[in-house]
């Protein structure tokens, strides 16, 4: 949670030690949140990400998981005027988004280098384990150790 604060989070909640719904109600003066993004894939957390929404709030489940959630759409979505939407690869136009992300990084507003950790291909199992345990946010496998990022790459089509 320290990294979240370093990167600009105004509040953090530890779901293992704090009641998510109570803390969100406290932080939002019982209004709920406008957006929730769930990356855990844990059934109860996915459900909570819908239940903590404000009126017109939007929940986005991002985790790739076999877990499911059961809820009453009338109660959780219709009566709460909430939305549950699917997003694939960020729903972006890469030609527009990637240059913007590079710009943000160069301005110090998107420090993605703090979110990734590099692993040799032979350490793929460790990369998966570290990602699953939260040691790293994004594991990056190095397929070609001879590659140097500061050397120009020539693409042939």
Sequence-ordered SSE layout with sheet pairings:
Layout (H helix, E strand, L loop, with lengths): L1 H5 L13 H8 L5 E6 L4 H9 L1 E9 L11 H6 L4 E2 L9 H13 L9 E5 L3 H10 L4 E5 L15
Parallel strand pairs: 1-2, 2-3, 4-5
Task: Describe the overall structure.
- This protein has 2 domains: 2-90, NAD(P)-binding Rossmann-like Domain (Rossmann fold, 3-Layer(aba) Sandwich); 94-142, no CATH class.
- Strand 1 (33-38), helix 3 (43-51) and strand 2 (53-61) form a beta-alpha-beta unit.
- Helix content is 32%, strand content 17%.
- It has helices spanning 2-6, 20-27, 43-51, 73-78, 94-106, 124-133, and strands at 33-38, 53-61, 83-84, 116-120, 138-142.
- The termini are far apart.
- The strands form 2 sheets. Strands 1-2-3 form a 3-stranded parallel beta sheet, covered by helices on one side. Strands 4-5 form a two-stranded parallel sheet.
- The radius of gyration is 19 Å and the shape is globular.
- It is α/β, with parallel strands linked by helices.
Give the name of the CATH architecture of the largest domain: 3-Layer(aba) Sandwich
* First-last Cα distance: 44 Å
DSSP helix count?
6
Computed over alpha carbons, the radius of gyration is 19 Å
Strand content: 15-25%
Secondary-structure element order, N to C = HHEHEHEHEHE
Fraction of residues in helices?
A: 25-40%
Number of domains: 2
Total number of β-strand segments? Answer: 5
Shape: globular
CATH topology of the largest domain, by name, is Rossmann fold
- The CATH superfamily of the largest domain is NAD(P)-binding Rossmann-like Domain
CATH class of the largest domain: Alpha Beta
